[in-house]
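Quarterly update, task 2.4: S-adenosylmethionine-bound model.
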Amino acid sequence: MSLERESSKDAPSVRVFFGDFRKMTSTEVANGEVSLIVTSPPYFNAPFDYPDLFPSYEDYLGLIRTFASQSRRVLRKGRICAIVTDDMLVKEGGGSRARKYPLVADTTRIFLDERFLYRDKITWVKPAGYTRISRRSGVVLQHPYPMYFYPDNIQESILLFQSGDFDYGLLRDAPKKILKSSKIDTVQLNKERWNLTVWNITNVLPIPGRVEEGIAAFPEEIPRRLIKLFTMYGETVFDPFAGSGTTLKVAVELGRKAIGYEIDLELKRVIRKKLGVENFVIEERGGARRLRKSLQTKIRQRRSVAKSPIPKLIL
Ligand SMILES: C[S@@+](CC[C@H](N)C(=O)[O-])C[C@H]1O[C@@H](n2cnc3c(N)ncnc32)[C@H](O)[C@@H]1O
């Protein structure tokens, strides 16, 4: 185990553990330590992010079950676990056929089984011109007959689960200074339509060379809204699948403490760069591994096959 403390001036406001989240202990993240979880678990074997990462869908659901039980353990009573996820289209065998997996429904079921309350679902809509995986709607243009319709996907779900009832008396008793720093700007809320169940937010564009390259990062605007809406100034935000560290970065910018877990050691450099803060603790744990380079190589190989003269559509 290695520990790198980049500054010892103040208590660190960011802790990042590199390891397999399934092995997280209460010494790392204590029971009830966290006021909000904002995260996006890996998308089951997503062809352009995590090809064959999980041996089976059942194995993937095992990760989500552990995620639900650990979330229940670390969250304070009445607090929110916000999950950005989407159903996933995964190729079967080596062919052009694919099967759609209901990640949103299964994640919801698992969190309900863990006794979370289903608080809400927000649909995150990306710009209409954006279809990263495949343009399936082209099929009906080639074959304009019934049963050839496959829509292009430009949305993801933001699932909001609540860990029991929240005691609003805690807000009434909070120090005035903290309440003032945590006040939500309702002019901005109305202007940017945060009040709706649909949020139109531009995704992180896959531009080569950017710090989030190959990470399926979500835009900063998602954790920014959620952190303002569900935490007080100074509280702790946790991202168990930290990726490039988007949630951690925004949490620190908003004066919250941040904890992250990430399995891929190759993202240490990325998180450091993205956060750019001094006050930062990184710990390595069992299960941490180097992942990105091998996934990216696999994706490049698949893309070169897809560039064959006869376009292969994923249906
Ligand atoms: C969808 S990405 C998160 C991206 C992040 N929201 C961002 O904005 O950069 C999911 C992350 O979970 C990590 N991951 C997958 N399995 C994990 C595990 N068992 N424990 C911890 N992290 C894991 C992946 O390496 C990946 O970086």
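Highlight for this quarter: The chain has one domain: 31-256.
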